[in-house]
Amino acid sequence: MVVAANKSAVGRASTPAKAATKSPARRSDKMAVPEFTKAEELDAYRRMLEIRRFEEKAGQLYGMGLIGGFCHLYIGQEAVVVGMQSALKEGDQVITGYRDHGHMLACGMDPKGVMAELTGRRGGYSKGKGGSMHMFSTEKGFFGGHGIVGAQVSLGTGLAFASHYRDNGGVCLTYFGDGAANQGQVYESFNMAELWKLPVVYIIENNKYAMGTAVNRASAQTDFSKRGSSFNIPGEQVDGMDVRAVRAAGERAVEFARGGKGPYILEMLTYRYRGHSMSDPAKYRSKEEVQKMRTEHDPIEQVRNRLLEKKWATEEELKAIDAELRDQMNAAADFASADPEPDPSELYTDILR
Amino acid sequence: MPTEVLMPALSPTMEKGNLAKWLKKEGDPVKSGDVIAEIETDKATMEVEAIDEGTLGRILVPEGTQDVAVNTPIAVILADGEDASAASAPNPKAAESAPPVAAAPVEPSPVAASAPATPAAVNSAVAAPPRPETVPEPDVPEGTEFVSQTMREALRDAMAEEMRRDGDVFVMGEEVAEYQGAYKITQGLLQEFGARRVIDTPITEHGFAGVGVGAAMAGLKPIVEFMTFNFAMQAIDQIINSAAKTLYMSGGQVHCSIVFRGPNGAAARVAAQHSQDYTSWYSHIPGLKVVAPYTAADAKGLLKSAIRDPNPIIFLENEILYGHSSPVPKLDDFTVPIGKAKIARAGKDVTLVAWSIGMNYALKAAEELAKLGIEAEVIDLRTIRPMDVETIVASVQKTGRCVTVEEGWHQSGVGSEIVAQLMEKAFDYLDAPVLRVTGKDVPMPYAANLEKLALPSVQDVVDAARAVTYR
């Protein structure tokens, strides 16, 4: 009855013994941070600032009552998605949880479409039916936008499964937070990803608080780069406030996954300046703590300072970039305010195909 | 005293098996634990061990005998000094009278015991299913040959045909590949399609359901087998929050063509945690389609349609029905449309609405009612969502009376929805309140008598039909 078959199941050959011998966790923050070229610094500056200006505008529109429900801002964490995205190729996939606006912009989605989704208008990426937490762009390889903490980890593993099944060389970046890292399905997914050598990079954005609960109050192991160690998944802790460190780690991880070696974990040490959502007064941390991160570790300021120090840009040139982005976000906000709400007939569309 | 060795029940739904091979001859000494014979069930070959010491006195059922009923004496073991003549002739009544598990003097070997994930005994209330009168499907051409197949074979053929047709279709789940399926529904698929497309998962329902949905979001067409739907409670978040809602939440951009399938509802004697009927749970959810076939032909045709459907489908099978045979049209590509009910038996006095194993009760009750001069029309709903309310209403417009039949609980059950639909759409045609025959409002008990009481019965359906026809 029992059939002798390839025990490693899914498709291509696996190398279980090899993974077991390597040290599962490394700290890339001890490694030298590779320098960016002028063009790379300018590009990173623009992309991170785009996210910040977008989020600031979204916060304003929320305050004006134009955005409803939950709205989770990404301010402070910009270096993570910008650094990671530069390690990707056409055809790769990205999936995340509900703090997702930054990921969408990093994937190249149009700020107008994202903002219009936040305001629940027909021009939004989900025609106004998804909102802040649920947007997708198959064209840009962005698969949401998921509101159940940790669910995207299994889904991202499934996206990687599809790339593996099709043998198309695709890699899936699966983002989740320090809070989601305690969900059971994360470890079910780790197990399958390593067992089947799926091309997935798990990026744990450790912003130190799961909603209002500090990491050390919720996690027995606070070094999240080690969370894959019992599955032999290598992991690194990365300075998630330094876009150069993020990109370097991202390139290592993506190369590893794309090479058929299986999943890789990157713990991004980062920080969100705003509350968990717009309605969070953030009483669980001190103003001084937030201020210290902003003044000493801000990801955008770091790039700006380097650009000025190296005389790769003048104050005026950087201001011009900022002004351009502010104009772009104002235009997005105008569009998102003026665009009509979905037609009532949309209530009954897109339920089944 | 000579000890009779009885044909053992080796799975919850086993009613008979084949005596494949005797490993001992008459006159051989046997010790407790010796393997004396091999038995083939519909799922596997199992070893029979002696539990007594002595001599194999007489073999009562020769090897190669097919369809030996559970509890039939198959051999006699003699104690020291006993003579073969002391062994009495086999008792032909044994099969019916003895409670199957307790009296069985043999046990499956440890290896065998771990084989089917299917605990034991046969639910006599549903043992011999009445065949619905064959109502030709609209797309089955006149003169089509029908072959008798078990639902198990029909489901396997449906998957194999669709996997041959479309390279994006694959099956994943616990024990689906090397073990050939816990209930042997995926038998032979690994051999034909290989480990890339027939994938054994770890025991992680939540995780692999999510992996399946993610793969579907990327455009593949997974068939996710749950060993039973009881275990899918671990995965229900991914089924509902991810699979069912993503099309809507993405404004139509991302769809999930995925089938979640496996046995649902009560098997037999497996108690509360392994006996739940989830039909009404899933039927509540916009964005899902819910299918629950009764016949082998419908199982095949609906599963093929489900695999091709671009939406998430909950495909609810029933373990008791897996081994039941019924005619399946011999066609290269036989599909049954999702969302269409079927009149399984025509009648004018009362409408009985059922699906899946509920059809067993409904069809038997219809036979009983016919003896009382009540002509029941039996509707096999087949798809629970979207529900073919039109067919129910049309029937009730004719009969004026309706009884729903399901093994699930009554509160917020599928029957409740049918009642509400009839109130709204056929109120003026009703000559009596619509009654629901359901499972009793209790967790499923283990004891055989209590389990029988907890499930609906044919008599319940007959009584309800008589009540609504005032006869």
Automatic annotation (TrEMBL), chain A:
Record InterPro entries: DH_E1, PDH_E1_Alpha_Subunit, Pyrv_DH_E1_asu_subgrp-y, THDP-binding
GO BP field: pyruvate decarboxylation to acetyl-CoA
Annotated region (Disordered), positions in chain: 1-31, 331-353
MF-aspect GO terms: pyruvate dehydrogenase (acetyl-transferring) activity
E.C. number: 1.2.4.1
Enzyme class: oxidoreductase
Any single Pfam family the record assigns to this protein: E1_dh
Dehydrogenase E1 component domain ranges (all copies): 46-344
Catalytic activity: N(6)-[(R)-lipoyl]-L-lysyl-[protein] + pyruvate + H(+) = N(6)-[(R)-S(8)-acetyldihydrolipoyl]-L-lysyl-[protein] + CO2
CDD domains: TPP_E1_PDC_ADC_BCADC
UniProt KW Oxidoreductase keyword: yes
Keyword Magnesium: no
Needed co-factor(s): thiamine diphosphate
Keywords: Oxidoreductase, Pyruvate, Thiamine pyrophosphate
NCBIfam families per record: PDH_E1_alph_y (TIGR03182)
Subunit structure: Heterodimer of an alpha and a beta chain.
Annotated function: The pyruvate dehydrogenase complex catalyzes the overall conversion of pyruvate to acetyl-CoA and CO(2). It contains multiple copies of three enzymatic components: pyruvate dehydrogenase (E1), dihydrolipoamide acetyltransferase (E2) and lipoamide dehydrogenase (E3).
Stated name of the protein: Pyruvate dehydrogenase E1 component subunit alpha
Organism: Ancylobacter dichloromethanicus
TrEMBL record, chain B:
Region (Disordered): 85-143
Record bears the keyword Oxidoreductase: yes
EC number(s) reported in the record: 1.2.4.1
Stretches assigned to the Lipoyl-binding domain: 2-78
Biological processes, Gene Ontology terms: pyruvate decarboxylation to acetyl-CoA
Catalyzed reactions: N(6)-[(R)-lipoyl]-L-lysyl-[protein] + pyruvate + H(+) = N(6)-[(R)-S(8)-acetyldihydrolipoyl]-L-lysyl-[protein] + CO2
PROSITE patterns: BIOTINYL_LIPOYL (PS50968), LIPOYL (PS00189)
Required cofactor names: thiamine diphosphate; (R)-lipoate
Residue ranges with Low complexity bias: 85-128
Superkingdom, natural source: Bacteria
Any one Gene Ontology molecular-function term assigned to this protein's record: pyruvate dehydrogenase (acetyl-transferring) activity
The keyword GTP-binding is assigned to this record: no
Pfam families associated with the record: Biotin_lipoyl, Transket_pyr, Transketolase_C
Top-level enzyme category: oxidoreductase
Family annotation (SMART domains): Transket_pyr
Keyword tags: Lipoyl, Oxidoreductase, Pyruvate, Thiamine pyrophosphate
NCBIfam families for this protein: PRK09212.1, PRK11892.1
Chain's role: The pyruvate dehydrogenase complex catalyzes the overall conversion of pyruvate to acetyl-CoA and CO2.
Subunit field text: Heterodimer of an alpha and a beta chain.
Stated name of the protein: Pyruvate dehydrogenase E1 component subunit beta
Protein species of origin: Ancylobacter dichloromethanicus
Taxonomic path: Bacteria, Pseudomonadati, Pseudomonadota, Alphaproteobacteria, Hyphomicrobiales
Gene this chain is encoded by: pdhB_1
